[in-house]
Amino acid sequence: xxxxxxxxxxxxxxxxxxxxxxxxxxxxxxxxxxxxxxxxxxxxxxxxxxxxxxxxxxxxxxxxxxxxxxxxxxxxxxxxxxxxxxxxxxxxxxxxxxxxxxxxxxxxxxxxxxxxxxxxxxxxxxxxxxxxxxxxxxxxxxxxxxxxxxxxxxxxxxxxxxxxxxxxxxxxxxxxxxxxxxxxxxxxxxxxxxxxxxxxxxxxxxxxxxxxxxxxxxxxxxxxxxxxxxxxxxxxxxxxxxxxxxxxxxxxxxxxxxxxxxxxxxxxxxxxxxxxxxxxxxxxxxxxxxxxxxxxxxxxxxxxxxxxxxxxxxxxxxxxxxxxxxxxxxxxxxxxxxxxxxxxxxxxxxxxxxxxxxxxxxxxxxxxxxxxxxxxxxxxxxxxxxxxxxxxxxxxxxxxxxxxxxxxxxxxxxxxxxxxxxxxxxxxxxxxxxxxxx
Length: 438
Ligand code: BGC
What we know:
Largest sheet: 6 strands, mixed
Distance between the termini: 71 Å
Oligomer: single chain
Number of helices: 14
CATH topology of the largest domain: Hexokinase, domain 1
Bound molecules: beta-D-glucopyranose
Number of strands: 13
Strand order of the largest sheet: 1-11-10-9-12-13
Shape: globular
């Protein structure tokens, strides 16, 4: 066996998640849920949302803000009741200008600057005079003290804006709306994107009781039927990206230790789009420097030089000469004259890393299902949004296959389905519920 082949065999062993390991991870996840819910030490924050499941009858014209990463969307949503809604207007804008003229995600920008910018975009979709309830999806770990009171615990996804951690995000946005002269837009609810996805999906299908984002970030939430705080149903934002009951490889440790927040978000760093490309790069770099896979280049040493989109292209390349893989290796890393075994190795690593992500995520959902319905006696729908689930070749299939491996025949009780752009609509539903109750 040559050096490359030997190295690849070892990597394959390290990245494979067997059915037995999925069962272990599921059991650890279930235990972490129970601990987090009752306030014991746990890597799962189990954050209360103060939102229950929707009735499907929520109605009205609502502004929704969907802030989940470097792109923010503002929507004007008309909820018509009976599970129907209409998106009347929408704008999407980056918080970081690609030509460098502004960057509201950097540590030199402040919270008020960031929220003033968002408020200016909301001003473009509302008319003067009318009162608009506003629902805000804010996809970062927040300690909720009420449905409209969410204090950012810490930024994730490498965002660094100053003066937001430790502050009430609903207040920061409302202050910015007032400063913009659109105080008739009234923040009613701040929710996590997983909660938004769950609400939007449950608005049309009441069997939805788990929701997740498999995109740039990763997280899941579920409907706790009898929440210890209220003894009533409540969506719980697990912040499962922070789950630490997962076996890290040396590449994961390397990535984690050189990230913005070492030791935090261990599962997210192994499972989400923000990081998968970097895991692949770290492995490929080792294959280049230690297994003579190719002539070394400066660019293969540059962190985050492989994007998630590249990963999808690599995995989808079924051409005999792996032309797309070769192009990416050259464009991103300056690796040239790669042999077919080198190109195959890159593709294999990409598949292994993406498959590991799906199997770890499936194991956490299995743990969640064991918590809410140990015998799988009723039907459950898991609503998922995010680019990995929607676009990465094989990702959705790997999730379903993993569930079937874990639950056998009983897996037919579990449906996993795409809930596209649900988080914005979910924020509108949460805001309408609160506004109509007042
Ligand atoms: C955040 C979560 C969010 C997830 C998906 C994670 O980085 O901590 O709050 O739900 O990304 O956007």
